[in-house]
Fold each of these.
Amino acid sequence: MKTLAELRSSDYHHELAHKLWAAFVAQQQGISMNMALAQTGGRMSDAWLMVAELALWAHASREGQFLGDQSVYDQFAKAYQSICHEQHSSGSLPSKVSEAGTIN
């Protein structure tokens, strides 16, 4: 899992996050992807950079590239906790995800 600093400096993650955000906006507003791409842009938030990283992990899991024998959920929870812990150090996000997947 990449750190937030690595995600913030990755042009690839910024572009993927932008496209994922635009796809979300297009679906929610019922507009074309091209229009959504034109309406969105600028600096991507940490949340969308994390979504981009998790999307890459999900893709990798379909290809059987997860290391170890943990479930996909466990991998996502571990990655999310790592990012939250990093953010919690700066005082901006919760620091723990419970077993049920709720944020504490």
Amino acid sequence: MRNFRVTVNGNTYDVTVEDAGGGVSNSDYTPSTYASAPAPVPKASASKGTEGNIKVKSPMPGTIVDIKVSVGDKVEANTVVAVLEAMKMENEIVTPSTGTVASVNVNKGASVNTGDVLITITE
């Protein structure tokens, strides 16, 4: 029997674990013993090498679940350009003004932080 203290989502638990045998001990550990974490989704670079003067930024950390525009699309103010999932809620990201999409800087599935530039627009 081994005792562990585990913290999950800010809650601490004292856990007792019994060795049932047949498991992998610490001395048997090699990096290939356990599955590796999935590779992170890379952020896309600015499309067509142009960047607009208006930057649409992420208001919070989350995951991009949809991109609604492409480079060259004309957009009006308050047009939904992306959908960001944060805390299991989908949030529509909108343009602040009218213009043309100059670059799309993220891919669907990408993790973003607060303030990351998602899309740029040229007036």
Amino acid sequence: MKKIVTLILVFISTFSFSQEVIKNVDAATFKKMIEEKKYILIDLRTADEIKSKGKIKGATELDFLDKNAEANIEKLDKKKSYLIYCAGGGRSGDCAELMKKQGFKDVVNLEKGFGDWKNKGFEIETK
């Protein structure tokens, strides 16, 4: 009986650790994930930031500094998978935590943000 309980505890702990909600990844990994086309890509920067610096091609704009940002995030489908980014990783890290609290199951954060993406020479689009 003791072995069965131990096996169950090992299984539960392994399963719970493997179900990580938030993943922080580098720009190269983020790029590969975009190419998989199974994620919704969201740019959390302001309209002025996007206008002046561009954005990752195909990203939906959702200004995390907007007063309605939390409500707009709440409206997203929690069952879908999201790739999120901001300028340097701070806002997107905060947004990832918010999404986790709101019940999202799969959120991937571009750890060093759009600045790192651009510095690596990856494709951007401008308005």
Amino acid sequence: MYLFLAGMFLLAAALVGTNPLWQFVRKLPARMKFVWIHGGLAVIGVSFLIIHATSSPNPTPMLAFLILLITFLGGVGLFALRRMKAPVPAGIALIHPLAAIVGLVLLFQAILAR
């Protein structure tokens, strides 16, 4: 149950996160309402994933959590840079969604393996 909820919230966060990514590609500032919604959905999804991963004997949810934790920290860094009005390094802005895709693939692999 928690694994499925984590997947749904993180998938919604990924969909909302395409807007700030698209703004970055167009070299425009991200709209903060999308950034806040994206981050809030991600925090809820990762919380559900923590609940499941800490009680599951299967290592895949824990690996997905660790990768999504790296993604989360990158997102916090991007958010902090945006709030300080500092330039956002392209590497972090590209690693963040790529790591999220890897984490989501592992998460959905764990969901489908159940």
